[in-house]
Amino acid sequence: MGMFITKRNALLATLLAGASALPLWAYAAETAEVPAEDKVENIIVVGQKNTPITVKPRGLSVSLGREEFEKVNALNVEDLMKYTPNFFVRKRFAGDDNAVVAMRGANTVQSARTIVLVDGFLVSNFLGNRFDFPPKWNVVGPSEIRQFDIVYGPYSARYNGNSMGGVVSITTDEPKASGGYATVQKMIMPFKEYGFDETFEGYSFEGGLTWKPEGSRLGLRASYRHFENVGQSMTYNLLSRVATQPTSASVQATYTDVTGAYVDPRLATPVFGAQSPVDVVQDQARLRASYDLGAGWKADGLLVWWKSSQDLTDARTWLTATATGLPVYQGRVKFNGVYYNATGITHSTSERTEYLAGGRVSGPWGGWDVRANLSRFWIAESDGRASIDFLTGLSSGAGRQTLQDTPGWWAFDASMRQAFGAHDITFGVNQNLYKAGQTIYSVTNWRTAANPTYNSGTFGKTSGFGVFVEDEISLSDRTELTLGVRADRWRAFDGGLGGLNSANQKVVTRYDTRSQTSVDPKLSLQTRVSDTLSLQLSLGTATRFPTVGELYQGTFDPVAQIILPDSFDPNLKAEKSKDISLIARRKFARSNLTLSAFGQDIDDAIFSFQGINQYGNTVSNYKNIARMKQYGVEAIYEAKDFLITGLDLNGSVSWMDAKTVENPANRAAEGVQFPRIPRWRSNGSLTYAFTERLKGTMGWRYASRPNSDLFGLSRGRAFGFQSEYNTYDLKVNYAVTPRTQVSVGIDNVANYQAYVSHPLPQRTVLIELKYRQ
User: What domains, with CATH codes, occur in the chain?
Assistant: First the structure.
């Protein structure tokens, strides 16, 4: 932990000094005595206090309930967290399957650094670690959620190294009483950029019924959601300048003189077209069951079916031939006297059917509280089809078909807990198995996948087995020390890459089995200094092993029609972090202020080098960074009746410094701010109760401009860059009856255009009607 001694001391001193001067943050009326919490473990949790947090609050912990959810325009589940401190979800459009969590310094392409659970079952997609391996949010609908619990950092031994960024626990209502709910939404987003000037629309319907007769041991809830939306285009295509400009008349004659491209000084070359807007349709059905087995034992089960499709067959070209006035889709073109190639636009469709099945039992046994759960997530069908280029897309010509070989995972967790005097001891075990595989075929008709012939394929598996012990030691009625340690055994096996040799014959390269063990200690000390001041210090290490995708699953180049050999690495090292967190919380009569300082030092950080190639397509590869570190501070303020009666404030501001320390592969990255991590973030909301029935909320989300690449050379606010964002949202809720509510909201009121390489949504209107019995 030596990295935190020296200049970190100034941050920690500031934190403690701030805690002693907190009255300056509150108005003079806040002088009433505040009662102490009943339990030490609940002393530092930001957010709702009505129900206990479902994750042990070691490190900064946030709990969100329905009161917080009512402030949010929630088109999808992940929206419910949008005002969480130092938090961002990379959601590009409503219905986006690639909504990756970014917590503190875990950036938007490091999806494997956050564990996400739904009712205790794993929904994090650790088949890969990239923008397209997000959690499976849509196994649950936004109206079904009772609580979001978010813990930052790997300070609990209960979770493996994938908690390096944090843990997100989603909880739905148990089927305790018969009833029902229904929600209808309509969303509208006018969008204008380059050649787009149109309005995209969508809608959703969600409903559920709970059956639980009085006195019955069995409770059931069945729910369903249908969602449709058209999101803006994710990719603009740029003209590719010919390296050697032609000088002979015969060669120049092969280029078509065009108009219509957009010259943007922020980009290297003009924009000539775009991939299709995303037409997404999703259907989700869920069944949750709960059964009282008697003698204190209980069984729970969850079954989810999720079907989704995306249609990207409305690609755009803005090029017009000067001579004929006809559209030009691709090929050699001359624009503003310069010779270019116009290429990279394709048409595509995809369909997926996915399942989650999980069961859990819990109860007492020999004085121990025992819990065990087993779950499986699998993609039963995944069929992606794409044309080779724009013209084959229009004519249903040649293309490729990508079929997944039932990828998915098994996850098992069990624990035993018992109190012995001042000690509260938990033993546990975790086990998982991940399997991935895909095959790419060349086809003569991309829409029908006619005449498929083998092109390439990837496959592989990983497994993990971990054991842990945690001892929560009550040192006094105000102080608790938690000591923990976990040991993990990891294997990567059955990995390989298939392709065609020069004779057009299938060849397969298989990779050696790998295994590794790790031991990670944890410590957390928390105390109530007084009835109004609480402190927590947490330390820990975490080891995150590579995923199947990082090791074996490459990226397909749609232009070269091959799997890029540098887009994966079967020899990647595990990344290991050393973490520290210090939290101070000051309570007032009607407000709370939480200050947090944190640091993380990572050896062999796995980084996805991602960018846009010359055709406008996203490409990436994985490499280890020898060492990177981050540290930062956060301030979180929660107030009821802030300044005036009826006005509630929840706001946060954070500052982070995340840099590459060692990178022998290219020293130019050393000392540079790590990509996709902004120095500043601020999230929050102001809610005013006009009457008991009518409430209005203004929310905000801000982040400063991050680097887009490892060397700090790529910075901008345009397509292809990671930009700053500064958005404000409005929402008005009106309770028509105690059970019926109508709301109207606007996200991004000022229409601020931001980018995560892809353009983020512009101003969006949401109209919503809810009923709950």
Answer: 2-772 (2.40.170.20)
